Amino acid sequence: MSESNPTPLPTVDALVIGAGPAGIGAALALQSVDSITYGVIDRGGIGQTYMDWNPWTRFLTPSFTGNAFGAIDLNAIHPETSPALLLQTDYPSGEAYAHYLRKVTELFKLPVVEDTAVEAVSLNDNNEFVITTARGELTANNVVWAGGEFSSPNTPEIPGAEHGIHSSQAQAWEPAEQSEVTVIGGYESGIDMACSLTSRGHTVTVLDPKSPWEVVGSDPSLTLSPRTRQRLRIAQKTDRLTLVGDASATSITVDGGQYVVTASNGNTYQTQHPPVFATGYHPHLGPVAHMFESRDDGWPLLNSDDESTIQPGLFLSGPAVRHKNLHLCFIYKFRQRFAHIAHVIGTRGGYDTTALKAWKSAGMWVEDVSCCDKSCVC
Ligand SMILES: Cc1cc2nc3c(=O)[nH]c(=O)nc-3n(C[C@H](O)[C@H](O)[C@H](O)COP(=O)(O)OP(=O)(O)OC[C@H]3O[C@@H](n4cnc5c(N)ncnc54)[C@H](O)[C@@H]3O)c2cc1C
Hints:
Elements: E1 12-17, H1 21-31, E2 38-41, H2 48-52, H3 83-87, H4 94-107, E3 112-113, E4 118-123, E5 129-133, E6 136-145, E7 165-166, E8 180-184, H5 188-199, E9 203-207, H6 226-236, E10 241-244, E11 249-255, E12 258-263, E13 268-271, E14 276-277, E15 314-316, E16 322-323, E17 326-327, H7 331-334, H8 338-348, H9 357-361
Parallel strand pairs: 1-2, 1-6, 2-3, 6-15, 7-14, 8-9, 8-14, 9-10
Antiparallel strand pairs: 4-5, 5-6, 11-12, 12-13, 16-17
Flavin-adenine dinucleotide is lined by residues 17-23, 41-44, 48-49, 57, 59-61, 117-118, 146-148, 150, 189, 286-287, 318-319, 329-331.
């Protein structure tokens, strides 16, 4: 693929867009399909999102080398790998996890093209996908979109929202010494930020009308993870954290160099540091957005194979995968679908997918996601 070389490259069976855990994982599963042709393309480097994480955030899902006993490291994207073993840590930093992704890519010799953004995806007369990049065009019979969500931060539509900053920006994590900070949103990223800032001497107020810190349940997609709760208990022992559970932010103004958040309980919260939105992400579908229908909640509508309902051959891998109330937003959840997508693409193309059985016996392939809503009894 090069502007100076006009010879078109052969059409591949599957092109994966995005080299985060969802894309590299999907490519690893595709590699298990005999003779299939595939590749991965990323606008940045392998694990780019993790390299862009702020330096204070760590994984909240623990890594541990339980693979030999059928308990695959929760953050692994291939049954024979373990971030805990490679990185010798249980809660990796973004930089460390990006290193794991690069090592896995190297070990399994995955064909990955870096620094090449996909700008558009369309169909040609042969019903193949045409993938347009700044460096030329590629064609593929199937596309797996694994573009993540980090580049689509969700900012609430309140007056003065332009004065706040989203928690995805490193600057949000770096107030001047001993600052007061208002954090809007109290689920994982809000509490992560509150714990990090209080441990560094700052004073934090978290606003969230749903009081997520009080909700207990066995699905960490809906409640705080044990690690975050543990850190929260430590932060609450300082006198620098206030959790406000009866109010949402209704506006932000700037007055005399101070940011003023007005809340629905009538209180105002005044700080020198811009208020921080820890309000999550939208799905980032980039150049394939027009090829997906949306659910009522705005997330992409998928069939039971994680495929677009309006564009056959276009699959979704990663945290945006949702089926009814099931959110596959963690690696240990969305990795269960890598083998499934590879199996669907492989069998439709007439390839032998027998080797994918290894993913199933390792417990890394759930075919029917409707069975995943079990709660723990204690
Ligand atoms: C702060 C934070 C902490 C998290 N902590 C955890 C955790 O502890 N455990 C856990 O399991 N999950 C965690 N998650 C959730 C989830 O696992 C991560 O969001 C994960 O990065 C998702 O993987 P992905 O491969 O889908 O996306 P990403 O890792 O974001 O990868 C997407 C890739 O697509 C590329 N890309 C995007 N658009 C294009 C384009 N047009 N052309 C080419 N390439 C493109 C990007 O450069 C990027 O490399 C966390 C999420 C966040 C935001």
